Amino acid sequence: MNLSMKKHFSLLLLIAMITPLFAMAASNNEDSVKYGNFVRNDQTIYYGLFHNISVTVDTSNGLDVPIISIANNGTSEFLFNPRSIRASVYHVSNLPKEFAHYINNFILDRAGLSQLDKDSLIIYNYNEYTKKRSRSTYWADMLSDAIIGLAYSDGSDASKLLQYKAQEDMEDAKVQENKRIEEGYWRSNTIFPGTSHQGFIAIKKFKGDNLVLDIPVDGTVFHFEILPEKYRK
After folding, report:
1. Mean pLDDT of the residues in the chain
2. What is the pTM of this model?
């Protein structure tokens, strides 16, 4: 199953799991987002439901690369621009970053989130992330070329063949990485009635075991707090 088929199957599976929840949300007349979570393959998936829109957040690949899915079960389309997403992390002010994880847990155990501050995080747009990955790939290629050259430097036919195979594998990995970004990174999309869209965003690396996401969709802000399990409501 290729990358595109896997992504399509994953999205269909997610839609099938979320769709029954719309009926539950519709039965409640309160004009607010209904939040919850479920477990898929040992990973907690967070969701928000508002009228005929659902938003899910999956951080199984890491807090800094959340996968966001949006489903439109309404009757009209809307434009979603991922640049409107805001990300932040809970922390304690004026403390060395290396202590943040332990201090967060200490205060959460005794006082809750109200005793913590939030730091805004940088979210890369598609072009910024593509350039960042290109730079990383360039330096990784330079290092790999040097290692391959040293490993297969005896000039024998076997070494030349192994060197060629190693370089071919590197090029294939680069193609797959470019495909992953091209097919999977969130960009502006119109979400038509009865359709869904899924993609990931990349957040600049940060120290912390929590993530707060505010995702505006068609005039409603979906607020997600991704916390360690024992602090989840």
Report:
1. 80
2. 0.75
